């Protein structure tokens, strides 16, 4: 009998968790846009941006600065690599 109760409880917990997750994903763009229109959106935290269809707008990733070894000439890079391999031994 307790097995049936556990299965019922686990099924209800799974459905509730899925409902909260999908509801949050569905209503988040609507709530963010309404707060932005009302002027009540906080400026001190980063808020994701959505397009008119509610799809998340992903910003282009920033490129990392080039490595210092890319500025070295081939001769300097070879000697630098040799020094690093000697130091690791």
Automatic annotation (TrEMBL):
List all Polar residues biased stretches. Answer: 76-89
Q: Which domain of life is it from?
A: Eukaryota
Region annotated Disordered, chain positions: 60-89
Put simply, this protein is called: Protein ECM19
């Amino acid at each position: 009998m307790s097995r049936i109760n556990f299965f019922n409880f686990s099924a209800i917990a799974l459905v509730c968790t899925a409902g909260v997750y999908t509801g949050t994903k569905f209503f988040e763009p609507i709530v963010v846009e309404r707060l932005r229109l009302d002027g009540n959106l906080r400026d001190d935290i980063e808020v994701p941006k959505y397009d008119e269809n509610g799809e998340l707008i992903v910003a282009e990733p920033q490129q990392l600065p080039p490595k210092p070894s890319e500025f070295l000439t081939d001769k300097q890079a070879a000697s630098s690599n040799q020094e690093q391999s000697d130091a690791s031994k």
